[in-house]
Amino acid sequence: MARDWQNSDDFVRPIRRILVGLLFAFLIGLFLFWRIDSPRVERIRADLVDRVVPSFDWAMVPFTKIADMFEGFQSYASLYEQNQELRRELQQMRAWRETALQLDQRNARLLDLNNVRLDPQLTFVTGVVMADVGSPFRQSVLLNVGSSDGIRDGWATMDGLGLVGRISGVGETTSRVIFLTDSNSRIPVTILPSGQRAILAGDNSLAPLIEFLENPTIVRAGDRVVSSGDGGLFPAGLLVGEVAEDTSRRLRVRLAADYERIDFLRVLRSRPTERIEDPGGLLTPARPFDAEEEAATEALTADTDGGSGG
């Protein structure tokens, strides 16, 4: 079998050594040529650069593109860092915005409380809602005012719009407010303009029922509902809401108070009612007998009769 002399190591290895040696000698010569400090050699280098470099613009394109890509990558990295910084600042701004909205809502609630028109003889204490102790069968909240602030059991509570409930349980520094929507809540109300009296009964919904209505035929949806003051439970004239009908044609009250956003509550100091222990105190006492006044009355009557006879 004939030997393939073109692929033989004895032929390739010497050629490789010659090419490597020539390349090494060329590089050494180029280095020395470029390092020689001579005016003549400097002119030769300048001429060489003027002739060769312009014709190699196409060869510099990849290097130029790579340099541009590197600069673009640096610019992209800088933009990415700036974007991340802006994202962090935006997140902080959103947190501040949420805080500002909460403060604005609280401020609006306080303004509503200050703008409510009540009986000028009624005074009030404003408390902050501390906790919601409601449940599916009980709806109430805790306030940060108690007996040390003069709070008493049974006093009415309002937000900036309408009646919310009453005090049901008082501690030293806290008190519990039971809502009108609670199933244990029953208050007397008046429906205007008809003047019908009824009982507002909570059923754990946002629209309590109207019960024991005298004449339902003259009550219309949208009629105003206020506290009647019967029994001395609440002061009369406190706004409760307006009449509405449910799908079963039962009359309910759409409450004026905003139960979704209760942050502050106004506790009304009710005037204590006068206790009457003696039923006779309701009657006007008789005037004592006066003999002289009776004699003067008889004389006046006699003179009148005499004048008529003459």
Explain what the structure shows:
The protein is α+β, with helices and mostly antiparallel strands and 310 residues long. It is built from 4 helices and 12 strands; from the N terminus they run H-H-H-E-E-E-E-E-E-E-E-E-E-E-E-H. It has helices spanning 9-35, 39-52, 57-115, 291-309; strands at 123-132, 140-143, 156-158, 163-170, 175-179, 186-192, 196-201, 209-211, 224-227, 239-245, 251-255, 264-269. A 6-stranded antiparallel barrel has the order 1-2-5-4-3-12. Strand 6 and strand 7 (196-201) form a beta hairpin. It is rod-shaped, with a radius of gyration of 50 Å. The model has no long low-confidence stretch (mean pLDDT 76).
Strand content: 15-25%
Shape: rod-shaped
Task: Report the strand count.
Answer: 12
Radius of gyration, taken over Cα atoms and rounded to an integer in Å: 50 Å
Order of helices and strands: HHHEEEEEEEEEEEEH
Tally of separate helices: 4
Structural class: alpha+beta
Low-confidence stretches: none
State mean pLDDT (0 to 100 scale). Answer: 76
Distance between the termini: 187 Å
In what order do the strands lie side by side in the largest sheet? 1-2-5-4-3-12
**Mind summarizing the main beta sheet?**
6 strands, antiparallel, barrel
Q: Fraction of residues in helices?
A: 25-40%
